[in-house]
Amino acid sequence: MKDAAQIGLFGAAGAAGRSIAHALGAAGRRYRVIGRGRDALQASFGHDPLAEIVTWNPDDPATVATAAAGLQTAVYLVGVPYHQFGQHPVLMQKTLDGLRAAGVQRLILMGTVYPYGRPRTLPVTESHPREPHTFKGKMRLVQENLVIDAHGHDGLETLVLRLPDFYGPDVERSFLHGVFQGAARGSRAQMIGPIDVPHEFVFIPDVGPVVERLSRTPEAFGRVLHLAGTGTITQREIAERAYALAQREPKLMVAGKTMLRVMGLFDPMLRELVDMHYLLTDPVVMNDSALTKLIGPVVKTSYESGIAQSLAAARRVAARAAAQAA
């Protein structure tokens, strides 16, 4: 009989879930991927004999407990539609209830910079005040507090790992997705500006190995930690590098805050970006020295290599689309 999975990824179908699953598989660890729909999970993980596929309904703590049965560690990656951030604390509480019922010992929440609000210092350490001024930041703060407060109760240990904005191959929910699409297709890249402010991005394939190591580091629990990117870069620099690699002249269409307001009249997603626009004008740049002190050096992909890999993936997508259209 094969060994059962001891670590489960709740909300596994996204980019971060795929990165963590890849790292777990590379380490030879069995893992469970948990999501609402089996088809999406099967498409992403069905090829891996180390993966166990389980579905759940995050609105129902009973199905959380069933999905978590036998797990030692849960990694929480559940996303909600951008206009429904009020669901984050609700789903987190239901998940915590289900994890306790299942006897799960450890929980890792994949967090964001939203709870900080506007940065007061750069770089930002884990001790920076959490004073969000946006609704989304406040909801993420409540979510984090639920996880932090759960540590040490009912046999559960918790960890919050905060990430900056991310990018990478086939990562659609990124400020940079339009850049790689545009460079691959020779079309205009749709971007949200300003694009000349130094910003921090983490390359999503770098996230998985860090989470895999943290999941087997007992001293990490009971803490909040950062995983930073590999320095700062501007969106314009990324676009210029991507188009240069594609041997094309950059074509950029940049929407600022005013344009977002206008476009938001017709597109709810863009309307929701207005509140978070401060992250482009006053970005949070993270310090992750606490993480590296705990687990040692972290491998981080250079922007040069990350841009090249992301462009290559966008080209493959563009080539498939062109072949299907032919």
From TrEMBL:
InterPro entries named among the record's database cross-references: Epimerase_deHydtase (IPR001509), NAD(P)-bd_dom_sf (IPR036291)
Listed SUPFAM superfamilies: NAD(P)-binding Rossmann-fold domains
Pfam family, one: Epimerase
Domain NAD-dependent epimerase/dehydratase: 10-217
Name assigned to this protein: NAD-dependent epimerase/dehydratase
